[in-house]
Amino acid sequence: MEQVEQVEAELTKGLLRRHPDFRRLWTGEVANKFGSAVTGLTLPLIAVETLHASAFAVSLLPAAAWLPWLLIGLPAGVWVDRLRSRPIMLAASAASLLLYATVPLAAWAGWLTMGQLLLVAMLTGVASVFFQTAYTAYLPKLVSPGDQAEGNAKLHGSASAAQLVGLGGGGVIAQLAGPVSGMFANTVTFLVSLLCTGRIRYREEATKAPERRAIGQEIGEGLRLVAGDVWVRTMTLFGAASNFVLTGYQSVLVVFLVREVGLDSGLVGLLIALASTGGIAGAAVARRVAARVGSARGMLLFELGLPALALLMPLTTDGLGLACYLIGGFGVSAGVVAGNVISSTFNQRYCPPELLGRLSASKAVLNYGTMPVGALSAGLLAGEIGVRATMWIMSAGVPLAALVFLWGSPMRRLRDLPTGRATVSTAAARPVTVRS
After folding, report:
1. What's the CA gap between 231 and 251, in Å, rounded?
2. Predicted confidence band at 185 (pLDDT cuts at 50, 70, 90)?
3. Is residue 175 part of a domain?
């Protein structure tokens, strides 16, 4: 009790940076995102420059990384709800650290193959399923409801900053020492994430479940909440469509910039990093815009208005034509991150705490499950119609997804997203109802 009271006293100040456990979680997440950003750039560069892989082979890397959401996402949500989140996060960080370390070691020994890159991408994807699901369920336990919006803004903003620094740093490392050396950043950053998460002093209470039911029954509760609630369903369908096209153009982006535009690896990292500064801007203004115009209107502005600039990206050429990617990428990054801040706060307030892990996993299976399909589709299209034409198709899909699923929903008639909490009976499998 004394520990809980101390945490609550810190949170009532409204300054989460003074809350030591949140600060450790924050630092660990930033380190994790930095390492992931370096990997997101260096793995395709290794495939392109070291292994001379085709555009389709390169597209298999993000497909392999996101495939685990389809395979184990639903049961992972049940396991997270049954177990404490922090040990799961620790195990996931440790696994990622060890797996990424095998890439430079194999390269130096002359054993590196495309098969190993795909295996590493898939296994770290498994670790990411558990880390992300546990992290989503853990944050609302660590901070009070009144501080969740601030916490989400800080985490998303810092994650965007870490990603752009990681992209830029990865590009510089690749330029100076080769893409393989860029993988060293991951071993250090995931170690930092592991240490910071391990130093969090807050301990969750054991889950108090009235009975341990079949895993399929518990999965069903999360799926019914997604299917039966108009707001959760709208967000999930939009996320699935949006991630399909986002992953589609991102999976061929390195190939596009290197082979079509003619950039070297260092400039690729710098260009992507500069465009990613939109994420910092989006996180910085998301709460203020949502408070001024309403959270529903803010979602439409950030997810439909700004990402329309994605149509500039396929126009990118060398020289002054690089501005097309900078403006388009900035708009997409700002819109996606700002929308994530609003939707994350909505989910944490709207979903029953005892179902947050299952809901997160159920949504993620649909949201992230389209990502390997998007990556593979883009890879196949690039081989058939060319990389630039594929960029046109996938970029146009970014604002189109919001137009169909968000503008076509009740969201366009409201100022704010609902604040009532969805409820599901945990004693039996009954239909979902919404309490307003």
Report:
1. 30
2. low
3. yes
How many domains does the structure of the chain reveal?
1
Alpha-carbon distance 364 to 132, whole Å? 9
Is the pLDDT score of 292 beyond 70?
Answer: yes
User: What gap in Å lies between CA 152 and CA 19, rounded to an integer?
Assistant: 15
Residue 95 lies in a domain: yes
Q: What is the pLDDT of residue 427?
A: 31
Residues with Cβ within 8 Å of residue 372, at least 6 apart in sequence:
62, 63, 64, 65, 66, 67, 70, 247
b/e for 73-112, b at 16 or more Cβ within 10 A?
A: bbbbbbbbbebbbbebbbebbbbbbebbbbbbebbeeeeb
Q: What is the dihedral of CA 52, 53, 59, 65, to 10 degrees?
A: -90
pTM for this predicted structure: 0.68
Burial of 62 (0-12, 13-18, 19+ CB in 10 A): buried
Structural domain harbouring 377: 2-203+213-434
User: Residues 6 or more apart from 10 whose CB is under 8 A from it?
Assistant: 18, 19, 20
Residue 208 lies in a domain: no
- Greater confidence, 25 or 15? 25
The C-alpha torsion from 223 through 240 and 350 to 199, rounded to 10°, is 100
CA distances from 406 to 232, 302, 328 (A): 12, 11, 21
- Report d(CA 241, CA 238) in Å as an integer: 5
CB 313 within 8 A of CB 246: no
pLDDT, tens digit, for every residue of 25-38?
Answer: 878 878 877 777 77
Q: Is the dihedral of CA 223, 227, 231, 233 positive or negative?
A: positive
Length of the chain equals 436
pLDDT digits (tens, 9 = 90+) for 138-166: 777 776 666 666 666 666 666 656 665 66
Closest CA to 163 of 255, 297, 289, 38: 38
Q: What is the CATH number of the domain that holds 32?
A: 1.20.1250.20
